[in-house]
Design goal:
Chain lengths: 129, 730
C-alpha cells in the first residue's frame, strides 16, 4: 500500500485506500467488480507544483491498483489535476461535469471514464441510514 | 439382460453407491502405492496390502511377474502383459468403477464386473491356442502361497462392501435413480477404453488371477466385459447367465438365512451356493476348458432356473466338483492361506471345512447389512458396525442438511436470528437489576440493550412487535444482517406490520439491495390502508406493465409516492411516506431529493434520532460530510447509544481527513457494540460476533491514514482492549 503513495499528491491517499478496498475484496466481489467495469484506467494526475504521477486501476484482469503506467494497454487514460481527482473521489464533482468543464481530459475510450465514478465510490464507506 | 439391468439398476438395491465409493477413497493406500508406483487406480491395489509380510523371495516373484522386462512364465501371453499403468491411466472412470466391482462378487447380478469379467477372461482364453496351458498355469500359480495370500486378503477386506448389493437385491427394495449414476459412468468407461482392450486382454486375464478377484481385477476387467458384450452376443450371454445363477443362489441363501442348524449352514451345499452367489463358481464353470460341456450345462440350467427363481442343486454341485482350485481365492481366510494352498490340490472335504470361518464372517456381515439396510429404508440410518463409520459420517451430513432446511424460513435458510448465548436477561425480570449494575457507567444502561430485547423476544417469540423492536435496535447498533433477520421474522409473524416493512427497506438500502428495498416499500405501500385509494387511483392512471424492468418499477413507485405526497400536501404531513420516498430516492442515489424528504419528515418528528442520522447519512453519501456532522451530533445528543450515528460520524470525519477524530468515534462505536456482548463467566469474552467487520475495517483504514501500523494490526486481530490502551497512550 505504501508503494502506491507519492509525496505531495492527495490522490495517492485516495488510491491507496482504493487499493486497500480491492485487496479486501473477496474473490466473488472482485469478480463482480471486474465484470461490471472490465477496463484498465490510467490516471495521470498533476499536482499544484506541476509534477505528474501515474497510477493504474486495473479492473480487467487482476482487479488491483498500482503506481506507474499500465502493464497492458489501458482502455482509457484520464488526465486531471490532483484537486479534481480529490473532488471526484469525494463525490463533490461528478466525472461528466468535470469533463465538460475541461478539468478532466481523456484519451481512449471515453465511455470507460464514466465508470470511474462508480469505482471511486467503492473506495468509500457508505454512511448508513 | 444384465447390462440393461445394470443401467436400469433393478437389482442395485437401496444402498447408495456413493457411500461405497467414499469408503474406497478414504482408505489409505499409500503403502501399496509405494510398492508398485503411481499411475494405478487406487482401489485396484488393495490386493497388495497383504504382500507386506511376504518374504523378499516372494516379492521378487511378484516383481518378475509384473515387470515387462523379466522373462514371463511360459503360460503368460506376452512379455508386456503386466504393464498396466497406461491402461489404468486411460481409465478415467476407474475410481468410480471401483465401488461397483467391489460390490459385485456377492450378488453379481447387476454388477457382474469382477467375477463376470473373470469369466470372460476364461472365455477369451478358450479359443486361444494356448488356452489349456494358460489355465493350468494360472491354477498352479494360484497354488503358491503368494497368490493365495493376495487373493485372500482382499476378500476379507472387502466383505463388508460386497454384501450390500446382495442384501438389497434380495429384499427387493425399490431403488433411487441416484444409484444408477455410477453405472452409467462405468458404461461410459467401457466405450472409452474399448480400443485398447485387445492388447491387454491377456494381461488382464493373468492379472485377474494374480491379483484379487474383487478389487484388482475389477477395473481392467470391466472394459473387457463390455467388449465381450458388444462383440460377441454368444459370449455376452454368459455373464448374464452367471448373473441369473448367482442371483438364484443369493435368493436361496437369503431365504435360508434364518436357518440356525449349523450342519446345514456349514454344509458343502450352502458353501457352494454362496460361491455361486458370489459368482465365482459359475464363472469358472464357464471357463474350464476340459469341462466346457459341463459348464455349458450349468449355464443353460441357470438360465432356466433364473427365470423360475428356483434353485437348482445338482448342476452347482457338479460345477463345484469340477472347480476345486479356482474357488479358493475368495473363500479362504488369510490365516488359513498356507494350508489352503496345499489343500487346493488335495481334498474337497478340506475345502468345505476351510470355508467355515469365512462363511461365518460373511453371514455376520450379511446380517449387519440387513440391519443397516433396514435403517436406511426407515430413514434413520445409524452406524451399526465397524465399517459403517463412513456411513455415519454421511448420515451426519445428511442430518445437518435436513436440520438446516427444516428450520429454515423462506428462501434464505441461514436467515434465522442467532441469539447470543448466556443472555443474563433470559432469567426474567429478576436478573434485570443485577445486570444493570454490572453495566453501570455505560451509556447503554440508560436504554434497553440488545440483550434485553433478545431476551424479550425469546420469551415471546411470536410477538412481531418485539421482533421489530429488536430489528430496529440492531440497525441502531450497526448490525445490518441481524436487523434484517429480525425484521423478516417480524414480518413473517405479522405481514401487516408497516413499520417493519419500512425498516426492512432501510436495511436493504444500506446493504445496497435495490430490489429488496423496492419490494419492501412496495409491500408497505400496498398494505397501507391510508393510501390504498390513492395507490389504486395512481395505478389506474399509470398501469405498470408486467415485464417492466426493476429500475422502471422503482421509478414508477417513486412517482406513485410523490403523487400521494402531493395530494396530501395541504393537510398533515405523514412522516412515514416521506421516509419511504426518501428511502427509494436513496436507493436511486438521488440524494438531494432524499434529503428533502427526510428533512420534511424531521419537521414532523423533531425528536427522532433515527431521522437525524438518516439526513446525515444522505448528506454524507452525496459528498457533504461536513454538513452531515451536525445531524450526527444531534442524533447522538438524542440517543447517546446510537452506534450507527457514531460510526457514520467516524466515516464523515475520515472523509474530511480528520483521522484522529474519526478513529475516536469509531472506537467509541466499537466499545458500545462490544458492550452488547455477554460477559462470559469463563472470562474469554468473544466480541467477534458482536462487533461488526465494517467498523473494524474503517478503523483500520483510519489507523493506516494516521500512519499507525501497530494499531492497524490490532484492528486485524479485532483486539479491542489492546487497541483502546494503545490508542489512549497516543
Amino acid at each position: 500500500m505504501s508503494d502506491i503513495k507519492v509525496e505531495g499528491f492527495k490522490a495517492s491517499e485516495i488510491l491507496a485506500a482504493l487499493a486497500e478496498v480491492f485487496s479486501n475484496y473477496s474473490d466473488q466481489e472482485k469478480k463482480s467488480q471486474i465484470k461490471k467495469t472490465n477496463g484498465i484506467f490510467e490516471m495521470r494526475v498533476k499536482n499544484a507544483e506541476g509534477k505528474e504521477a501515474v497510477w493504474t486501476i486495473d479492473l480487467k484482469s487482476t482487479g488491483s491498483v498500482y503506481k506507474g503506467a499500465p502493464k497492458s494497454k489501458p482502455n482509457v487514460t484520464i488526465i486531471m489535476s490532483d484537486e479534481t481527482f480529490t473532488q471526484l473521489a469525494e463525490g463533490k464533482l461528478d466525472g461528466q461535469k468535470a469533463f465538460m468543464s475541461g478539468k478532466l481530459k481523456t484519451k481512449g475510450n471515453m465511455m470507460f471514464a464514466t465508470k470511474l465514478d462508480g469505482i471511486l465510490k467503492a473506495a468509500k464507506t457508505k454512511a448508513k441510514l | 439382460m444384465s447390462l440393461p439391468m445394470l443401467v436400469n439398476g433393478a437389482e442395485c438395491g437401496p444402498s447408495n453407491p456413493l457411500q461405497g465409493l467414499s469408503k474406497r477413497f478414504d482408505q489409505d493406500r499409500g503403502i501399496q502405492q509405494d510398492q508398485f508406483g503411481a499411475g494405478r487406480a487406487g482401489s485396484s491395489k488393495e490386493a497388495f496390502r497383504s504382500q507386506y509380510p511376504l518374504s523378499p523371495g516372494v516379492n521378487q516373484d511378484a516383481a518378475r511377474f509384473f515387470s515387462s522386462a523379466a522373462s514371463p512364465p511360459p503360460a503368460l501371453a506376452s512379455p508386456a502383459a503386466f504393464d498396466f499403468s497406461a491402461l489404468h491411466r486411460s481409465l478415467p472412470v476407474s475410481h468410480t468403477q471401483s465401488p461397483v466391482p467391489v460390490q459385485s462378487p456377492i450378488q453379481s447380478p447387476p454388477l457382474q464386473a469382477g467375477p463376470a469379467a473373470w469369466s470372460t477372461d476364461f472365455l477369451l482364453q478358450q479359443p486361444g491356442p494356448s488356452a489349456s496351458v494358460s489355465v493350468t498355469g494360472g491354477a498352479q500359480r494360484q497354488a503358491t502361497p503368494m497368490t493365495v495370500e493376495q487373493n485372500m486378503s482382499p476378500a476379507s477386506q472387502q466383505v463388508p462392501n460386497t454384501y450390500m448389493p446382495g442384501l438389497s437385491w434380495s429384499s427387493s427394495v425399490g431403488m433411487s435413480a441416484a444409484q444408477f449414476a455410477p453405472m452409467a459412468g462405468v458404461q461410459g468407461g467401457f466405450a472409452q477404453v474399448k480400443p485398447q482392450i485387445d492388447a491387454a486382454i491377456w494381461d488382464q486375464e493373468f492379472r485377474s488371477q494374480e491379483l484379487s478377484l474383487n478389487s484388482a481385477a475389477s477395473a481392467p476387467a470391466l472394459p473387457m466385459e463390455a467388449e465381450t458384450v458388444t462383440e460377441a452376443p454368444s459370449r455376452a450371454q454368459q455373464p448374464h447367465d452367471a448373473d441369473e445363477l448367482a442371483r438364484t443362489a443369493a435368493l436361496l441363501i437369503d431365504t435360508v438365512q434364518n436357518e440356525t442348524n449349523p450342519k446345514f449352514k456349514n454344509s458343502a451345499f450352502m458353501g457352494l451356493m454362496r460361491q455361486l452367489r458370489d459368482g465365482e463358481v459359475t464363472v469358472e464353470g464357464n471357463d474350464m476348458v476340459q469341462r466346457s460341456e459341463a459348464s455349458g450345462g450349468v449355464q443353460s440350467h441357470a438360465d432356466a432356473k433364473g427365470k423360475g427363481r428356483a434353485v437348482d442343486v445338482p448342476p452347482p454341485a457338479v460345477t463345484r466338483m469340477q472347480l476345486p482350485t479356482l474357488q479358493r481365492p475368495v473363500t479362504a481366510t488369510p490365516a488359513a492361506s498356507t494350508s489352503l494352498a496345499t489343500e487346493q490340490t488335495s481334498d474337497e472335504v478340506g475345502e468345505a471345512r476351510q470355508e467355515d470361518p469365512n462363511d461365518a464372517y460373511f453371514r455376520q456381515e450379511n446380517e449387519d447389512y440387513i440391519r443397516m439396510q433396514k435403517d436406511i429404508v426407515s430413514g434413520r440410518a445409524t452406524p451399526q458396525s465397524h465399517f459403517s463409520s463412513q456411513q455415519a459420517e454421511w448420515d451426519n451430513l445428511q442430518r445437518d442438511w435436513e436440520a438446516f432446511e427444516a428450520s429454515s424460513h423462506g428462501l434464505q435458510p441461514l436467515s434465522n436470528y442467532q441469539f447470543q448465548v448466556n443472555n443474563p436477561y433470559l432469567n426474567g425480570e429478576a436478573s434485570r437489576t443485577r445486570h444493570h449494575t454490572a453495566h453501570a457507567g455505560m451509556n447503554e444502561a440508560l436504554y434497553e440493550s440488545v440483550l434485553e430485547m433478545e431476551a424479550a423476544v425469546q420469551r415471546d417469540p411470536t410477538n412481531a412487535a418485539r421482533w421489530y423492536e429488536l430489528g430496529v435496535k440492531q440497525q441502531e447498533n450497526e448490525r445490518e444482517q441481524k436487523a434484517v433477520q429480525a425484521l423478516r421474522r417480524a414480518l413473517e409473524l405479522d405481514p401487516t406490520h408497516l413499520a417493519a416493512w419500512l425498516a426492512l427497506a432501510i436495511s436493504h438500502t444500506n446493504e445496497g439491495n435495490r430490489s429488496g428495498a423496492y419490494s419492501a416499500i412496495r409491500e408497505w405501500v400496498e398494505r397501507n390502508e391510508r393510501y390504498s385509494a390513492a395507490v389504486a387511483q395512481f395505478r389506474a392512471l399509470n398501469p405498470e406493465s408486467e415485464d417492466a424492468r426493476s429500475s422502471e418499477r422503482l421509478q414508477n413507485m417513486m412517482q406513485c409516492l410523490m403523487s400521494i405526497v402531493r395530494e396530501h400536501a395541504g393537510g398533515e404531513i405523514d412522516a412515514d411516506i416521506q421516509i419511504a420516498l426518501a428511502v427509494l430516492l436513496n436507493t436511486n442515489e438521488d440524494y438531494t431529493k432524499a434529503r428533502d424528504c427526510f428533512t420534511t419528515a424531521l419537521a414532523v418528528r423533531p425528536d427522532d434520532s433515527l431521522l437525524y442520522n438518516r439526513v446525515g447519512a444522505t448528506l454524507a453519501n452525496s459528498g457533504h460530510p461536513e454538513e452531515a456532522l451536525q445531524y450526527y451530533y444531534t442524533a447522538l445528543e438524542l440517543n447517546p447509544g446510537y452506534i450507527r450515528a457514531r460510526f457514520n460520524l467516524g466515516i464523515s470525519c475520515t472523509n474530511l481527513r480528520r483521522y484522529d477524530e474519526a478513529a475516536q468515534h469509531i472506537l467509541d462505536a466499537l466499545i458500545l457494540q462490544a458492550g452488547d456482548s455477554v460477559h462470559d463467566p469463563s472470562g474469554n469474552e468473544d466480541t467477534r460476533g458482536v462487533t461488526s467487520h465494517a467498523l473494524w475495517d474503517s478503523l483500520k483504514t483510519c489507523c493506516l491514514h494516521m500512519q499507525r501500523l501497530d494499531l492497524a494490526t490490532l484492528c486485524d486481530h479485532r483486539d479491542l482492549d489492546a487497541f483502546r490502551l494503545n490508542f489512549q497512550m497516543m
